[in-house]
Amino acid sequence: AQSVTQPDIHITVSEGASLELRCNYSYGATPYLFWYVQSPGQGLQLLLKYFSGDTLVQGIKGFEAEFKRSQSSFNLRKPSVHWSDAAEYFCAGTSMNTGFQKLVFGTGTRLLVSP
Amino acid sequence: NAGVTQTPKFQVLKTGQSMTLQCAQDMNHNSMYWYRQDPGMGLRLIYYSASEGTTDKGEVPNGYNVSRLNKREFSLRLESAAPSQTSVYFCASSEQGGTNEKLFFGSGTQLSVL
């Protein structure tokens, strides 16, 4: 079955430090992968997405993610974390041409930013 | 500049009561979705509507019904609420439903069923 796994439930990072959130996928064909962010009491906002082509994808708010087929991973990175980045982050995936009705979300990683 | 608007934001029900969650979008999107979010489980699709006049089941449709009232509005109804339906519910929309687009989410409805 197609799945998306986020192995880390919580991560704490010092402000100004670099960040990497892990996401692993299980798809037979080339997946379409997404990262969303959810601030407290808010809906989800798209950070970035990967469909094909360049495996390093740039997103909003200084985030980037790298698609690595050999590792079945799509990890989210940011070089310097700000206190406002504290939120919950969701990786999601689907297969080519199946649309959002087949979008599968990971269980989320809560990012805490320490001073 | 409202985007996707959900009402109510909070609701407490007793087991067996019914209620309707309302969702409206002002972006002229064709596709609309209802998700539920439970701790440790991410978001799961309940129902979706690819276009006005059509609705389809998602991953967890049992206990729910939906109505696509018009292009703007997509409501979710719980006919007889159960404690297992305690969750945060999100409505979302997209222009056509293709994954080369963006999903726009509402801010959610927190529902507790006692």
In sequence order, what are the helices and strands of chain A, one letter per element?
EEEEEEEEEEEE
Any idea what the radius of gyration of chain A is?
14 Å
Using CB atoms under 8 Å apart, which protein chain pair has the greatest interface?
A-B, 24 and 27 residues
For the terminal residues of chain A, how far apart are their CA atoms?
41 Å
What is the topology?
The complex is a heterodimer of chains A (115) and B (114).
Chain A: E1 3-5, E2 10-14, E3 19-21, E4 24-26, E5 31-38, E6 44-50, E7 56-58, E8 64-68, E9 73-78, E10 87-95, E11 104-105, E12 109-114
Parallel strand pairs in A: 2-12
Antiparallel strand pairs in A: 1-4, 3-9, 5-6, 5-10, 7-8, 8-9, 10-11, 10-12
Chain B: E1 4-7, E2 10-13, E3 19-25, E4 31-38, E5 42-49, E6 56-57, E7 65-68, E8 74-78, E9 87-94, E10 104-105, E11 109-113
Parallel strand pairs in B: 2-11
Antiparallel strand pairs in B: 1-3, 3-8, 4-5, 4-9, 5-6, 7-8, 9-10, 9-11
Question: What can be said about this structure in brief?
Answer:
The complex is a heterodimer of chains A (115) and B (114). Chain A has 115 residues and is mainly β. Chain A has no helices and 12 strands.
Descriptive account of the structure:
The complex is a heterodimer of chains A (115) and B (114). Chain A is mostly beta strands and 115 residues long. Chain A has no helices and twelve strands. In chain A, the strands form three sheets. In chain A, strands 2, 5, 6, 10, 11 and 12 form a six-stranded mixed sheet that branches. In chain A, strands 3-9-8-7 form a four-stranded antiparallel sheet, with no helix packed on it. Chain A is globular, with a radius of gyration of 14 Å. With 114 residues, chain B is mainly beta. Helix content of chain B is 0%, strand content 50%. Chain B contains no helices and eleven strands. The termini of chain B are far apart. The chains are: A mainly beta (115), B mainly beta (114). Chains A and B meet through strand 6 and strand 10 of A and strand 5 and strand 9 of B.
